[in-house]
Write a structure and sequence with these properties.
Blueprint (H helix, E strand, L loop, with lengths): L3 H4 L10 E3 L13 H17 L6 H14 L6 E4 L1 H11 L1 E4 L2 E6 L2 E7 L4 H4 L7 E5 L2 E2 L5 H8 L6 E7 L7 E6 L1 E4 L3 E6 L3 E6 L6 H15 L6 E5 L8 H10 L5 E7 L6 E4 L14 E5 L6 H11 L4 E4 L7 E7 L4 E11 L15 E2 L8 H4 L21 H4 L13 H6 L5 H12 L10
Parallel strand pairs: 1-18, 12-13, 13-16, 16-17, 17-20
Antiparallel strand pairs: 2-19, 3-10, 4-5, 5-6, 6-7, 6-8, 8-9, 11-12, 14-15, 14-19, 18-19
Helix pairs in contact: 7-8, 8-9
Length: about 450
Amino acid sequence: MKIAPLLRSAALVTAVALIPATTAGLAQVDGRAGPEFAKLFATYQRIKASYVEEVDDEKLIRGAIDGMLSSLDPHSAYLDGSDLQRLETMIDGNYSGLGLSVVMDDGAVKVVSPFRGSPADKAGVKAGDYITHLDGKLIYGGDLDDAVSQMRGPAGSSIKLTIFRAGRDEPFEVSVTRGVIELEPVTSELKPGNVGVISVNEFSADVGNDVYAAWKSLQSKAAGRMAGLVLDLRSNPGGSLDEAVALSDLFLDKGRIVSQRGRARGETLLYDAETVFRGDIAEGVPLIVLIDAGSASASEIVAGALQDHRRALIMGDRSFGKGSVQSLIPLGRTAALKLTTARYYTPSGHSVQEGGIKPDIAVPQLSDPDLAKRNKFVLRESDLRGHLVNEVGLEDEALESDARSDPRFKLTAEQLKEQGVEDFQLHYALETLRRTTKSSVALRK
């Protein structure tokens, strides 16, 4: 396969914002590295000569490349063959499988988030779940790409997942029927009181235009002026940086959206409002953005921009905290290097890395019966082995708010269910917009 189509696109790979490389200049090898290269070559020679079984060169070179990249951060990787094919299918947004975003966490496959409406979502798989077996076969300690390829398969076929979930005493099994995953990046719904909800499930191509169309559709359905809008970015693990900029630009008419700063020349870029869309399409309409621990990368760019410009009230849980950019650099015709080349920063200069976006109003998902126990095992960027460290050097404890209970959030999942509330965070956002005047909901002054 050719890499050219990939370089024209931006895609989601677990929680990664992937953009084409702006520079691919090769650094000169430091002369001081000579002795280290000598050690590498000596190791290669000794393995070739003395290992108990004959080893081919391709396996040794691939192992050396993988070793170098794994020493950097969780998002840098070498891609070829089936790895590139999987990346291409994610770019297309159309493949047969379960509809999961997963990462490797200390040898275990951990769910970042199921895509909404996917077979995994319908089967009850949740963010934070650990998948330990596939069809009874242990996958702990194995390769993430191998686990992903096993979960892929023809639509209509089934696979049995063994899941460990915080709050459960024992692992349990879930049978999931694979389907054709045609990711619907944007959905919308008009709620009572002329309050709209636009859900962005991933940042694939044309998300900015899709949100614009969704807003126009909501306006046409409303009986009069729109009273408020909820932009739901929960469990959205990211995607195209360009689409994150476009979506932010829909609701901003001036100022910085995000800055990207790298070490190599050409990797420092600035993105401003009024470069994709003119004006604020919902000017004067109160806006709430919902985020959670599954909101990563491109989602955090949008939330951070709208928060810093005081255009939206951010509500929910602290986001994932992935503030790095990966560039896809071709290595010949059949392989590519996915390399972390820059960090990105919100308009105020805040690095999202590790700390994520802190909501203006923290609203727990009380409708989740396993909330308290699952919160102990929630996965964020700072939990990944080898993650980039925030330049400020914040400790996790400093990122957490106090543990005092909030009197507003006392209802249990069972009580909410009796009231017909299945999604407490969305319910709270809608009620906030209905009972608040537009002048007091974080609008720019």
